[in-house]
Amino acid sequence: MIVWLNGTHGAGKTTTGALVRQLIPDSRVFDAEKVGETLMDVTPGLPETDNFQHWPPWRPLVVETARRVIDYTGGTLVMPMTVLVERYWHEISTGLAQHALPVRHFVLHADQATLRARIRGDTVLGPDSPFRLRYLEPYAEAARTWLHREAEVIDTTHLTPAQAARQVAQAVRNREVRPPRANPPL
User: For the whole model, what pTM was predicted?
Assistant: First the structure.
């Protein structure tokens, strides 16, 4: 199984993903960003882009890598990765489905003010990361138009990463399918 943690920068995907791994037996974290980093190392470089997800090889390589890891290890892959382009999400989720890999897609959501404060207060990547702030509006647009319909939304605005991780792990353990719900405020 794949537990995909989506959402924009500052929502808590990486921290929550590490905690989810501790709560779900036989699970591992796979950061699909590493696939993008590998593509960035191709020499001479691939065509210029502002986001490696725009390179067509990235999506099938994420699918193939996840499939191969699960074939090798079994268990659950926890994948904290922002995907804000609907077509890209459908390529990935369809590819995983073609390999009979069930996906639980969660969006870790927070309101814009909370996201900005978290990004500005980040002591690991540094405050005011322009790269991360640049994705706040595309996230809000994706949330309004498709993303929150495609996933189980966990509003992390007032949650610690541990609380969000417990909600994800409990939902996975229950294997319940939640009906779509109204989008939380952006």
Answer: 0.90
Residue at 89 is within a domain: yes
Per-residue pLDDT tens digits for 35-79 = 999 999 999 999 999 999 999 999 999 999 999 999 999 999 999
Amino acid at position 33, single letter? E
pLDDT, one tens digit per residue, over 128-162 is: 567 788 889 999 999 999 999 999 999 999 999 99
Return the percent helix, strand and coil in the chain, to nearest 5.
50, 15, 40
List alpha helices for the chain, DSSP H: 13-23, 33-40, 58-73, 86-98, 112-120, 130-133, 136-145, 161-174
Q: At what angle do helices 136-145 and 112-120 cross, to 10 degrees?
A: 150
Q: Which residues contact 67 (CB under 8 A, 6 or more apart)?
A: 96, 99, 101
According to DSSP H, which parts of 33-121 are helical?
A: 33-40, 58-73, 86-98, 112-120
Say which CATH number the domain at 54 has.
3.40.50.300
Residue 186 lies in a domain: no
